[in-house]
C-alpha cells in the first residue's frame, strides 16, 4: 500500500503534471488530498474494514450485468445469526458455519464484529469464507 501510495503521489502531483493534462476534461485525476485519504483508509485496519463492508454492501445491491463485478464477491446467501453455531469465548462469543468448500468453520463471526456493526446502525455483517472466495450476509437483531 505504501509503495502504491508513493507511486500515485509522484504520478499525480501537480508539479509533475503538464498543464494540458490538468485542464483536459477527459482526465479524472485524483487530488493529493484524495490520495492521502485513500492511503489512510487502506492502511488503518478499522477504517479498511468499514470501507470493505460498505463496498461489499453497495456491490451486493447491484443487479448482475455483464459489466458488473463478479458474483464471487457478493454474498451467496443470507443467514440469520441463529442459523450459525455458537461457542462462548473469554474474549466474547463466536458464531460459525461450515462452508460448501468443506471448511468446518468457514464463516466465522465474532461478537466484536456484531457490536461494531450495531454501533454503526447496521444489522448485518458480511463474512467471507476462510478457505475459499464465498461470502454470506449474516443478519442479526439486538
Automatic annotation (TrEMBL):
Domain J: 1-55
Domain of life, source organism: Eukaryota
InterPro entries in alphabetical order: DnaJ_domain (IPR001623), DPH3/4-like (IPR044248), DPH_MB_dom (IPR007872), DPH_MB_sf (IPR036671), J_dom_sf (IPR036869)
Pathway the protein acts in: Protein modification; peptidyl-diphthamide biosynthesis
Bias (Low complexity) ranges: 64-78
Molecular-function annotations in GO: metal ion binding
Region (Disordered): 64-83
Broad class of where this protein is predominantly found: cytoplasm
One GO CC term on file: cytoplasm
Keywords: Cytoplasm, Iron, Metal-binding, Nucleus, Zinc
Organism: Patellaria atrata CBS 101060
Database matches in Pfam families: DnaJ, Zn_ribbon_CSL
Protein name, per record: Diphthamide biosynthesis protein 4
Localization terms from the record: Cytoplasm; Nucleus
Similarity comment: Belongs to the DPH4 family.
Domain DPH-type MB: 75-141
Coiled-coil ranges (or none): none
Annotated function: Required for the first step of diphthamide biosynthesis, the transfer of 3-amino-3-carboxypropyl from S-adenosyl-L-methionine to a histidine residue. Diphthamide is a post-translational modification of histidine which occurs in elongation factor 2.
GO BP terms: protein histidyl modification to diphthamide
Amino acid at each position: 500500500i505504501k509503495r502504491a501510495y508513493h507511486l500515485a503521489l509522484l504520478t499525480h502531483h501537480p508539479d509533475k503534471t503538464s498543464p494540458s493534462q490538468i485542464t483536459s476534461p477527459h482526465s479524472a485525476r485524483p487530488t493529493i488530498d484524495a490520495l492521502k485519504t485513500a492511503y489512510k483508509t487502506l492502511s488503518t485496519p478499522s477504517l479498511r474494514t468499514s470501507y470493505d463492508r460498505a463496498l461489499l454492501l453497495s456491490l451486493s445491491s447491484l443487479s448482475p450485468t455483464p459489466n458488473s463485478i463478479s458474483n464471487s464477491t457478493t454474498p451467496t446467501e443470507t443467514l440469520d445469526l441463529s442459523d450459525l453455531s455458537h461457542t462462548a469465548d473469554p474474549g466474547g462469543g463466536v458464531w460459525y458455519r461450515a462452508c460448501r468448500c468443506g471448511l468446518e468453520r468457514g464463516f466465522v463471526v465474532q461478537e466484536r464484529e456484531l457490536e461494531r456493526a450495531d454501533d454503526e446502525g447496521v444489522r448485518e455483517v458480511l463474512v467471507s469464507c476462510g478457505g475459499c472466495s464465498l461470502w454470506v450476509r449474516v443478519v442479526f437483531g439486538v
